[in-house]
């Protein structure tokens, strides 16, 4: 079947519409029947909770929290928890569906879920964040579970928050249940390599794509948007492989150095500077959005959704986009990217290293056994390379872009599993 460009989307770009428009194209290519289509597009469960928290000044504030289980056809649901002021139900629904497709692309036995709380962690104390995380966990007691739904970090959360979640859940169960969450600190049963895993997967995907494009990493240049977990590690690992990182950014702006940024040094600066790049001296500060349209070979968006849109896609100069973030490209921008001949390694493939090592963490917790870093990295690199090859071959087979090929691979797997399980 021929590749069909996404139908134009009205109004504002919306991650859920973007996800559905790619899903629809892949469903048509696969000739998905109506019953399976309707099952796969509808989230299994959507939970919204109100979380009253006592702030440090004694006032009570109520935060809204979400957890969406998109699918548990392949296994227990899996996906991170986001703390961000923009969190809303549609965003969480899109992110949950992307988890389903992502787990299927890398062939790990999980369904997809995502959670989030609409809050601004940058303006909250550690105590306030802890109370919020514990209240959220308590509200989700019937949802979470090592065989049900296993959360992990996402934007605005990390090992510290996962530790509070594990503790709150374990106290309620009366036993230590470390397999209820991944991305934990090492001493609580976290896996070696999980902190670096998403960025490492981005690096492996970027190198695989560069090989296809005959781009020599030692001569290539790159810009990375977002300097949190995914962005900073992607930049560091690409830099270590010889790629010149010309620009990085965080919420305070973008920082450009034509000779390349010393990423180790920028990470050390950020750590010593209250977690931000503000005031970073070894680069010129440029308008944040300019980073995306710089003259570089590789662009790694690793902050948030819908940053490559109709407003800027025309100006993108990179030959390769490797999506560290979830949903950084709007569906409407896809068509222009394809027209321009840019290779885009989609989020559900490029950033799947994180959930892959989360899976290893869960396996280790259940075995009561710890793997060495070497084993973790070797296995996750292999999974990422195999997934890249599978998606690439699918793209060639149907003559479709990598993004749609990734959806085809994922939806085919989930649909077949659904049908074998007796979904009819
Ligand atoms: N953590 C993980 O394992 C995985 C994460 N992802 C995805 O990767 C993306 C980033 O997540 P993660 O690195 O964990 O999150 P972090 O919170 O660690 O980092 C987010 C980064 O993005 C920056 N940022 C936020 N808003 C903007 C903006 N408007 N412009 C530029 N930079 C911005 C933040 O700046 P500041 O530091 O100043 O706040 C920070 O540097 C998300 O889309 C997430 O869903 C995908 C797979 C796994
Ligand atoms: O590690 C995980 O389980 C999920 C990470 C995540 O939220 C993501 O891949 O978007």
UniProtKB/TrEMBL annotation:
Positions binding NAD(+) in this chain are 198, 229
Tell me the Gene Ontology biological-process terms attached to this UniProt entry. L-glutamate catabolic process
Listed A to Z, the keywords are: NAD, Nucleotide-binding, Oxidoreductase
* Residues annotated to bind substrate: 78, 102, 358
Q: Tell me the SMART domains matching this sequence.
A: ELFV_dehydrog
What residues does the Glutamate/phenylalanine/leucine/valine/L-tryptophan dehydrogenase C-terminal domain cover? 191-422
Q: In this record, what's one Pfam family?
A: ELFV_dehydrog_N
Question: Could you tell me what this protein is called?
Answer: Glutamate dehydrogenase
Organism of origin is: Catalinimonas alkaloidigena
């Amino acid at each position: 079947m021929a590749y069909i460009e996404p139908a134009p989307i009205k109004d504002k770009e919306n991650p859920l519409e973007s996800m559905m428009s790619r899903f629809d194209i892949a469903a048509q290519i696969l000739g998905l029947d109506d019953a399976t289509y309707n099952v796969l597009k509808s989230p299994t469960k959507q939970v919204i909770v109100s979380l009253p928290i006592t702030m440090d000044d004694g006032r009570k504030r109520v935060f809204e929290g979400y957890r969406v289980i998109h699918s548990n056809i392949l296994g227990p649901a899996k996906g991170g928890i986001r703390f961000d002021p923009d969190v809303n139900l549609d965003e969480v629904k899109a992110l949950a569906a992307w988890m389903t497709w992502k787990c299927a692309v890398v062939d790990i036995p999980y369904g997809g879920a995502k959670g989030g709380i609409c809050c601004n962690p940058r303006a909250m104390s550690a105590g306030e964040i802890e109370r919020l995380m514990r209240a959220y966990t308590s509200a989700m007691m019937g949802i979470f579970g090592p065989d049900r739904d296993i959360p992990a970090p996402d934007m605005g959360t990390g090992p510290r928050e996962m530790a509070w979640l594990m503790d709150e859940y374990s106290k309620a169960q009366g036993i230590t249940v470390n397999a209820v969450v991944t991305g934990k600190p090492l001493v609580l049963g976290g896996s070696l390599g999980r902190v670096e895993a998403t960025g490492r997967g981005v690096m492996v995907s970027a190198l695989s794509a560069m090989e296809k494009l005959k781009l020599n990493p030692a001569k290539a240049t790159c810009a990375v948007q977002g300097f949190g977990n995914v962005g900073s590690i992607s930049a560091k690992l690409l830099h270590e492989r010889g790629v010149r990182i010309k620009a990085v950014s965080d919420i305070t702006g973008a920082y450009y150095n034509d000779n390349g940024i010393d990423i180790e040094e920028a990470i050390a600066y950020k750590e010593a500077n209250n977690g931000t790049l503000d005031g970073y001296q070894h680069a010129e500060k440029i308008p944040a959005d300019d980073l995306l349209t710089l003259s570089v070979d590789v662009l790694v968006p690793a902050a948030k959704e819908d940053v490559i849109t109709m407003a800027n896609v025309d100006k993108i100069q990179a030959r390769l986009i490797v999506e560290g973030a979830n949903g950084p490209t709007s569906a409407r921008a896809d068509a222009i990217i394809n027209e321009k001949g840019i290779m885009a390694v989609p989020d559900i493939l490029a950033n799947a290293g994180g959930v892959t090592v989360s899976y290893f963490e869960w396996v280790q917790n259940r075995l009561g056994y710890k793997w060495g870093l070497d084993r973790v990295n070797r296995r996750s690199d292999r999974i990422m390379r195999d997934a890249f090859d599978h998606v690439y071959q699918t793209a060639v087979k149907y003559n479709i872009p990598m993004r749609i090929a990734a959806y085809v691979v994922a939806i085919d797997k989930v649909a077949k599993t659904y049908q074998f399980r007796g979904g009819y």
